Amino acid sequence: MRGNRPTKLLDYTLMALADPLRRAMLKRLARGEARVTELAHPFSVSLNSVSKHIKILERARLVDRRRVGREHIIRFRPEPLDKVQDWITKQQAFWRAGLEALDELLQREDDIQERVK
Amino acid sequence: MTASIEARVTHRFRASAERVYDAWLDPGKAQLWMEAALVKLGLAGDTQRFEIDARVGGKFFFSDMREGTEARHWGTYLELDRPRKIAFTWITEESQEAEPSKVALTIEPDGEGCMATIVHELRSEWAEYVSRVESGWGAMLTAVDESLVG
What we know:
heterodimer, A: mainly alpha, Arc Repressor Mutant, subunit A, three-stranded antiparallel β-sheet, 5 helices, 68% helix, 12% strand, rod-shaped, B: alpha+beta, Alpha-D-Glucose-1,6-Bisphosphate, Chain A, domain 4, seven-stranded antiparallel β-sheet, 4 helices, 31% helix
């Protein structure tokens, strides 16, 4: 299941967030779920276009939809944003550990030099 | 607040910029501190392969065992400017080859020691996108956070 791998999902998240209209849609959805028609209205774009944007957000799992009668209700899912933050936190921990370990190695070299003197 | 998606860390060394630069690229030393770093992170630090070809366009590869699986890391050196800067791509699986993340280590002399900064930038293509648009990534997160709180 390639599509479920975290790095792929991270790509989808970043791609979904790269578009100003999709970010505006997410901001609207962060205030509460909305019907597709409601979501299209403030942005003066066609339903067809909004539908495409929603698909990209769905692929990134930033939104999900449920059906109520003939209406589709779109809801914001903030979890993928946490994934991006997780990546940043994880990489920071990795490189911080690297620099600290490198520093300790150089300090040990200095200690050995001192003892030789 | 930064517009690109990056992880940034800074560390002050008592050692000179030259020593930090050289220890980063010396295969024997780099393996030692990388193993120690992995241990700091709670991993075994059990490296399998460790290779450095320290020239622009040259590659590095290292792997360590994590619960029976080999965690691999590789990339290409993009910039080598002793003792100021080492830049390289950073890849942990084949699917990232086309659009790798980039790491830059900059080393500024500071008294007898130096200040080292690592910036790990996620997929330059997306980072560029995000920084180009007006509100940017940071503003997005803030807006979403505020809406959730409110």
